[in-house]
Amino acid sequence: MLDKSVLAMPEPRRIRDRDHVRYVTRQSCLICGRRPTDAHHLRFTQDRALSRKVSDEFTVALCRGHHREVHRSGDEAAWWTKAGIDPTVVARALWLETHPLPVIADNTQVHEDQTAGVVNSTLKLTASQ
Fold it and tell me: Is the pLDDT of residue 127 over 50?
């Protein structure tokens, strides 16, 4: 079997994490704040694959009404633009809540620069500073 992760253009990873999806469904609707919610997979974040959803790391909470509306819209990215929300930022924040970035042993914490989407290492601030 070929390890596709070593290819020049590897296939996008499609992570499945039931606990994360359950966590997302415990959040309020991203549009109206209602509950209960469904975990909506942001389809525009990864290339399509035959009968495969995008990775669970790209999920946000939507009430049933908004979940149906986004699926019926035909152009999901435009739907989110019209709503004035960047759901990828919210999806990343939810993912980091259930999958925190590691702390390195030399008192350096890894964190994500959300504006560039780049992982950087920075020194933790201490109480003495």
Answer: no
Return all residues near 75 (Cβ < 8 A) that are at least 6 apart.
Answer: none
Q: Is 123 helix (H, G, I), strand (E, B) or coil?
A: strand
CA dist 58 and 56 (Å) reads 5
pTM of the model: 0.70
Query: Who contacts 122 (Cβ-Cβ below 8 Å, separation ≥6)?
Result: 108, 109, 111
What residues contact 28, with CB distance under 8 A and at least 6 apart? Answer: 34, 35, 37, 61
Residue with tokens 């109206």: 32
Q: Are 24 and 60 in contact (CB under 8 A)?
A: yes
Taking phi over 0 as left and psi of -120 to 50 as alpha, with beta for the rest, 51 belongs to left
- pLDDT for 67 equals 97
